[in-house]
Every structure is written in structure tokens, then in C-alpha cells.
């Protein structure tokens, strides 16, 4: 959310309102979603055309926070949660969804330097870095602006964000874009981050405004809730300031509103005058909406209830640690062991008291951020208005505010009119679910983010609709509950509104959410794997080697192999039960997700796909690191970009996101899939192309002998689990029939030629044909052909030999 045009207006007058500031040795509140988009848009080397480049992105995020910590800065990160339950922002969200769709349609390796988009799992990769660094953070139930402002006021600290709404909140604000890229060192040796600080008092003094009028100014200029068109009649009656007849329309509008507000002292009196200038039939709705937003700007304050919702670390705000018998404290995630959030729940669902292994930071607030980072949004175009009508977007006025009572109570998220279980609230606050889960809980529409995919195919998010239906049934216990989804149309040129299809007759049935605490670890694992189509199969070897109380993952019974294939694998020393006993714990949920992906992929999933997905975690190998960047031939357009492969990778990201959601709803019996460990778009794409072209020979060039043995073993196990043929067969060379081969022109004999390999790639080959010694009439005939002259028939050309 941002006040339209205000950011540019202040930057053009930076000498008056922005002062240099050395940021060091203090606590700051970070608008998390704003930071996510800022790092994604301003980091060099991220390749958006191949899906998420999550490994590089995680390194950028870690470097950003390391720079803050070097300066003694304590960041508290607050992230946005679900959509606004009042639906007042639905049209704004729809407009942004349409803009993102247009960007993803234009994205390709040859154009990715001109466009940016936010890959699907970027937020999960960001939260993963926060956990690894041990930073205090939290995901708010809905929008984070008000909790961010309230926490900043309570701690008397600055907010770091490019969102101009914080100018209206009246808190100290450091524009995120003003932070220096690297720490600087002062004369005393103290490192600091050079930045600018917005002087709220100077702004008020310059235009003669009272502080209580700033919220009304933000409403008049328009934000995510109020479009500029709603108050267009008011601005027609506002004269432009003297001497400002030319300039940007938004700057003239802001100057006019400031000059008009200067004559008023009471916000309510000024609002009544504004309403008198618009149409009578709109006054009640606009007045109610503006008053509510003004209250949000001016009355957000700190409360003990907010402390309980955010679960801030003890001592940070002068509070004691909260003891809640219904909430299981989250444990730190381990690289080797899955996090089981219900392991200490008794059969009646109550939690035993546990001590944290170390201080776990838990600061939470809702952040709001404009998805594209810009606040200078103009009126919605006519084309967008037509899209609204086609998609049946409603709820952009205050008439829909009454529906939020069943989903929200005093800012708290409700599930069917009651607070969700404590263990689930903790998982949501820790960011271990996507916003789809929060929207399903509150009954809000699902906004499926567009990805780089094949526009000729159905959207990649369609493949996970059965998983969304599973989540909804688990949360509400109603298989036929209506769920609205906004996604790309099958044509690929617009956003449409659809309803989730009811579950199929043979679809796996989830356990009720209330029954989850009473389930054993093995039962919850079984539920996760059944939802993804990878059921548990007990085997003697797995029961023998498994950890007590845990049921190992196994291959579905339906995966049958020919006798010869089974004998070949047995000879290799890999049995059905032992395959998943040996598979690392971190790959159990990944293997289940790959089973689902294989069945719903737009194209067949082969061993080359699985082998490529095992390479990002081996990026330290020199040969693998060379694959991290896009092929230069792709960037220049010499080699075609395979959109079908990009579509498959987009489908995989959708499956991984929903697999983590299902796992979290079952109390995290398996280790969550790490985006930065598993998925690196350019690396996976390049490795897949090479594996399809060269087979195992390509991997032998990338990995050292020990790493190659481990890679082959894990690939064999994954193939056994997913039912994929483990053979890596190189592509057959393209042979040109001799009867159809054309004679080369003069000067082309022996030259190199680009030959396709049948997979969208090209390779350089040299024509290798014998060059006979030509004498007499044969040589003369060849010269005639090369000169383009008429050649006689064979008898004339040959002459006497």
C-alpha cells in the first residue's frame, strides 16, 4: 500500500524533507515484503526467465542482513499475511495480477534484462534465510502496515520501507532505496549504513499542516483502498497553487490538496467539505471508507494484545515471556532432522511445556508493500476496467466489510468463527505456509501469481487445484466448500475468476484439523504422503532400519516393473524397501512432491529432470557452478528457449509450495522442502538440457568421483520412489537422409553449421565428407554448378572419364 505520487513528490524536494542519517547501533522495523521485492528487483545476476534463482537470491538476502548486523543494527522483520478480509483491495490486487501476467508473458532469456518478476517461492527463500540467521521476524495475519507502525511507535525506532503510507502514520521512516549498498566507516571506526531520513516535522511546517490532517491527505491522494477516480470531482474544484500551472499531474494534484488542507484545522470538518463536492449517491460509501482509513492511520497503537499476537522475544519490549498451554513453542529447524511440531502433544491435544534450545526471535507485524514497489499508480485504464467486468471482481467498496466478522476478531485470524489451534497459529506466524492457507482459512479468494510458462498450455497452478481442495477440506471439513481462484486464463492473455472443482471420487480424504494433535507421527506422515500420491508401504528392511516411532517412506504398491527391469535393479543392489530407507530425510517430502509432479506434468518427467534437481545442492563442485548462469546462446537468441520445460519447472514450484502447506497442516512430520537447496532455475534448466543431450557423460564432467557416486545413488533412489526410468540415455543424433541432402554452395564446403539436436538446442558440427581429386570435365562441371550456370545432364557433365 502506498500514497499515490507522494514518494516522487518528496524525492523531487529531497533537500527540504530528507536529511542524511548514519544508521547504526539501533533497532529498526523492516517492512518485510518491501525488502523482498527490493532485493529481487535490484540484485544483479538474478535470472527470472528460468523460474526462481533462489540460491543467488538467498545469498543476496544474507548479505543484506549481514551488512546491517555489522553496523550494530537489530532488524525486526514483519511480513504480510493473507488478503484483506474486507475485500476492499480486491480490484487493486486484480490490477497488479494483470500487470504481472503481462510481464511474465514478455519474459524470456533474451528480454529478462528489461523485465523483473517475483518468482513463486521467493518469500519462502527469504524466510529460510531469516531462520538461518536467527533474526526476529513474524508473518502477520493480514496486512502489516498497522502493526509495523504500532511497533515503531512503541519502540521509538525507525521503519525501513519505501511504502509512503508510513509517512502518513507519522513514524520515523528511512526509505529503503536510500540505504547504501555497503557499510561505511566513520572517523571513530564505527561502521554505519548511509541513508536518508524523512523529516515529518519539516513537511508539516513547509505546508502549514497540522499532524492530524496527514491521514486525510493520504486518503485524498489515493492508495490501495481508494482509487483516485473516487475523488475526481473533489480535485476538479481544487484550484492549482499560484505559480504552478505546469508539471506532472500527480505533483499538481498533491500541491493542490496541500494548499486546500492548509485552510483547515479539523479533519472531520475538512472531510465534510470534501464529501459535499462529490455525488450524493457516493457520499455515504466514500465517507465511511475514508473515516475507517483515517482511524487506521491515526489510532494504531501498541497494546498488550498485540504483544501476544506477535510473540516478541523476551526483553525486546520490556515484557515477560508468554506462557500459553495451548501453543507448542516452535523448535529450530535442523538440516538433518524434520521439525515435528506435535511430537510433544498428548492424546487430548494439550501441549507439554518445553524449553527452547536457544532464544527464538519472534517479532511479528503485518507489512504492506506495493507488489511492484511503486506508489505512483495512475487511474485504472479502460482495458483494466473491462478485465474487472470479465472477471467479476467485486468487493472494492465498504459494503463488503460486514463479511470480515466471521474471519477476523480484533485483528486475529479466525477459522470457522474460532481461533485456530495454537500449533497452527505458530506455524503461520513463522511463515511455514504460503498465503493460500490464510486465505483458505478466512474464506478469501486465492490470487495465483503468474509465472514464466508456456502460454499455450493451461496455467501451471491448475495442476495443484486438487491439493488446494485437500487443504480446504482439512481446514473446514467441507469437501464441497466454494473456493474462488483468480488465475491466468487458458488463453494466457487475461485474468479470470474460477471456482475450485469438487474433489474426485477417488481423491484422498484428509483428516479433520481437530484430529491432527491426536495422530501419531507415522499417521501424520502417511496423511501427507497419501495427499501427494506417495503412500507408505511397510517393508521388512524399512521396519528394521527405521527410527523408532517413525514410518519410513516407501514406493507406492502400484509401481510395478517388468521382470527384467526388476532383476536389473536387484543386481545393482537397490531393493524396493531399501530405496527410501537410504534416502536422506531432507528428500522425503521432496520425493513425495516429485511423485505428484510426475503424474500432473505437462510433459513426461525423466531421470534427467530428477538428476538436474539434485545438482543445486552440489553447487560447490566447479563443474556444477559453471551451469549457474544462462547459456550465452540463449541470451543472444541463437538457441531457442524451451517454453515447455519452463512450464514444467513452474508446475514443480507450485507443487513444492503446496507440499509444504500440507506438511505444515499435519504438524510438520517431514522436513520442509528448501527452495534455495532444491531449485536454482538457470542451473536446473541448463543441466536438464545437457543431461538430455549427453546423458551420464555430462555429469562425469561436472562432479568429482565421490560426489558422482552420491549423486547416482540418490538419483537411483528418487527414480525408484517416483517410478521413473533411471536410465540417462543421450539423445540420438539428427541424421540427414542422403537422398534429401543438398549440395553446398561454393565456399561452404568444410564450413561449420548449426545443427539442431531435437531439443531446442543447437550444436556445432563440421561436415565431414571425403574430398576427391577432381580433374578434367568433372572439375569443369563442378565449377558450372557453383557459378549458378545451367548444368547439363549426367552424360554431358561426365564426358569421357
Write up what this structure looks like.
The protein has 801 residues and is an alpha/beta fold. Helices cover 42% and strands 8% of the residues. The chain has a 5-stranded parallel sheet, sandwiched between helices. It has a 3-stranded antiparallel sheet with strand order 1-8-7. A hairpin with a 5-residue loop joins strand 14 and strand 15. Helix 4 (54-70) crosses helix 6.
Descriptive terms for the model:
801 residues; 5-stranded parallel β-sheet; 3-stranded antiparallel β-sheet; 8% strand; disordered C terminus
Outline type: globular
Strand content: 5-15%
Mean pLDDT: 75
Distance between the termini: 87 Å
Largest sheet entry? 5 strands, parallel
Backbone CA Rg: 31 Å
Poorly predicted tracts of residues:
319-390, 394-405, 537-578, 734-742, 747-801
> Would you count the extended β strands for me?
15
What's the gist of this structure?
The chain is α/β, with parallel strands linked by helices. The protein has 34 helices and 15 strands.
What's the structural blueprint in terms of helices and strands?
Layout: H1 6-11, H2 14-17, E1 18-23, E2 27-31, H3 32-42, H4 54-70, E3 74-79, H5 90-106, H6 122-133, E4 137-139, H7 145-155, E5 158-160, H8 165-169, E6 173-174, E7 184-185, E8 191-198, H9 200-207, H10 214-221, H11 232-236, H12 249-261, H13 267-275, H14 280-299, H15 304-310, H16 382-391, E9 408-409, E10 412-413, H17 422-429, H18 435-442, E11 446-447, H19 465-476, E12 484-488, E13 495-499, H20 521-531, H21 540-545, H22 563-571, H23 576-582, H24 588-600, H25 607-613, H26 622-625, H27 632-636, H28 643-665, H29 675-678, H30 681-694, H31 696-702, H32 705-722, E14 752-756, E15 762-766, H33 776-786, H34 794-798
Parallel strand pairs: 2-3, 2-5, 3-4, 5-6, 11-12
Antiparallel strand pairs: 1-8, 7-8, 9-10, 12-13, 14-15
